Amino acid sequence: MIIGRYEIHSVATGLFRLDGGAMFGVVPKAMWERVSAPDEHNRIQLAMRPLIARDTRSGRVILVDTGGGDKWGPEEIERFAIETAPDQLGTALAGLGVRDQDVTDILITHLHFDHNGGLTRWADERRNVAVPRFPGAKVWIHRAHWQHTKAPLEKDRASFLKRDFMPIFEAGLLNVIEGNPPDSPFDEIRLYLAHGHTPAMSLPWFSHDGLELLYTSDLFPTYAHLPVPWVMAYDNRPLQTLQEKKEVLKACYDRGVLLATAHDPQIACARIADDGKRPVVQEAIPL
Ligand SMILES: [Zn+2]
Which of 70, 170, 227, 284 is the most exposed place for a label (fewest CB within 10 A)? Predict the structure, then answer.
């Protein structure tokens, strides 16, 4: 998809599963299992879909999140039913004509493992030292989120894996985004800060000539999460997530903003409509 100066694609980096009850919070299983069928361990299928945005004017190539990467051990692969090939991120980027050295910037929406695992890879087969996967790229994270990462709540501590992001910090690749509203480091990309899932989750909002696209990360992890009360139990501040979802849905209804989700197993991007009762996917958009 072309939006102004940006050529944008979804990047398929693999599949995993999380507990369906945790994914849908207070929604009864009798309701969510109709839209997202659980396996024998009550887990639902999720994708990991970063975005790649090529700035056709400046030449910058911006990766938005990285998927979970490939540093998983056997226990993690089993617990989360991870299906990903070695360096699937690199293979997917190559399929879109993007070489490793082309990636100039990586915007990390937040540092949970399913969004930033691809920032690093094991240095060698001993699998005990992680090194930056894209040593030539600047990695952008909002200051308030980085501060939270260093002292996470007990509630979301398990979602932060130091092997994914400490090598980035130690290599001097970390760049901090300031402010609320944030000072975007990218031309013609606004950053929308959402705080309900985790503090200062930074969502890129592309906009040009009436065409708008928001990458929703974990604000709307899948299109099954479009209804306002369908909020994950993982969220630190679920009431704030409700407000943020309402604000984004209003923009979808008023201006036709397209939503690109991080985890929907079927659809990468969609136009959203109000069917009179709830928000629904009006049209899947290729991305
Ligand atoms: Zn996620």
Answer: 170
